[in-house]
């Protein structure tokens, strides 16, 4: 990012797994810079899902850098996730035709359940695959693959944990970090909000704010995708030898299995 240093910007790396995001300041102006962001960012900005895109530039290295308005604010708390505004923004995302059209233009195909199951089956380490909770979940996945109509697949974020939600100081709500965006069954996002953050007795009310009724079909699909995402996270943390987080996800998966067994 030497180009921006030379232009007098002060850059502060923001960490994260990609190492490609910066807070940039110059003469009191603040921007959020990112290298090699997806063209999908422009559509997200136009829909008001992320902070407004200011410009996109190709620099001397050939990399593309995007700049968005810097928003002071905070992450959502776990308690915030049960609020109506989260439900409404998820609804906006899942029903957006411009977002869906953009991902299709970028060549993205629907992420159907069969493909998700294959990816898990082919990527698990022997240690994770042998864990009794994971084995129980995988058996469930294999025996209960949802039948999804491609026409019902929408734009999904894929990692809707509370750290990826930003509430600005001016009370604007954004969902950020879209690197895992996909075209898929919206239940893949809904399950990872309801299971970790919302008491089961409040699911119907939350989903009413989202715009759907709680049905047995939706319940089954959310459970299936929650198993997929929990196992994926278990393997992700095991790969990085972050065993506390891995065990936290195993505990989460075990609780989901036990809760559904009691219903």
Automatic annotation (TrEMBL):
One of its GO terms (molecular function) is transferase activity. The keyword NADP does not apply. Keywords: Transferase. It comes from the Bacteria. The keyword Ribosomal protein does not apply. Pfam families: APH (PF01636). Coiled coil: none annotated. It comes from Jeotgalicoccus meleagridis. This is Phosphotransferase enzyme family protein. Residues 15-225 form the Aminoglycoside phosphotransferase domain.
